[in-house]
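Structure tokens please, single chain.
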Amino acid sequence: MTDHVAVVTGANRGIGAAIALAFAREGYRVAATARDVTTLDGTVGAATGAAGSVEPIACDVRDEESVTALAAAAQALGQVHVVVANAGIAGPTAPLHQVSLAQWRETIATDLDGVFLTFRAFVPGMIERGSGSLIAISSMTGKRPLHGRTPYAAAKMGVIGLVRTLAVELGPHGIRVNAVCPGAVAGPRIDDVIARQADARGISVDEARRAFTDPSPLNRLVEADEVAAACVYLASPAASAITGEDLNVSAGVVMH
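Here you go.
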């Protein structure tokens, strides 16, 4: 697979790092991005010995010129077969009437506009080749409410609409478009979200954590590697008939 390139945005930590490493282990040359390229050192180092490699590229997915430069750099590595639009932010935790327009716009710009710009940059090359796999990281919050997270929920639901419509547009060109909807993924980011939820709702941190784990039939959070495995599957020939889907990796919290 060393002649195959996978692009993974927001690959410096958490889900993004796990996805980049999973594709590197499958033999891809991975164009891994972050706003600050130095934060990708850990991901690059962790790929040592993998069948493929991780190539760090600076990119701000909110900026059109930055994404255009990413596409050029990634295509210089080889044919881009897979693009995983993962970069995103949590956004504010507050009632809607306390969310500033700046906070709203930053969340939408990163979590929804960033997917649009990333996919748009790579679609022409995939159309020309007649194949490709586009994968967006949405969230189970794009399918169900989460208290105080209206900007994030709106963006992630928007990603699902983008994916379904783009799947219809690009199917005739042999390009598949899917979303992965993770549940609460274990790690520092969800710890911060849980702490903010506890504060916003006036409950203990343990109670806020149980609000994420108790609805799960498995009674646990999701691991980043489990989300990465879903992305590798969706990009593989085994998923050749799957497009327009939003695949839950939520430990059963969401089943639709």
